[in-house]
Design goal:
globular, mainly beta, three-stranded antiparallel beta sheet, 3 strands
């Protein structure tokens, strides 16, 4: 699974880790994140992320 990086703040979403603090289980691919998921560091949406 591919990591995605926030173009605004540099946060890296790693699907192996997920985002448990925001209800995203480990093993969740970026494409399967809910449409309303936001970067945990700066609050932008998925559209501001690029494949790493």
């Amino acid at each position: 699974m591919q990591n995605y990086v926030c173009d605004v703040c540099g946060y890296v979403y790693n699907p192996t880790d997920g985002d448990p603090e925001n209800g995203i289980q480990p093993g969740t691919p970026f494409k399967d994140l809910p449409d309303d998921w936001l970067c945990p560091l700066c609050g932008v949406g998925k559209e501001a992320f690029s494949p790493e």
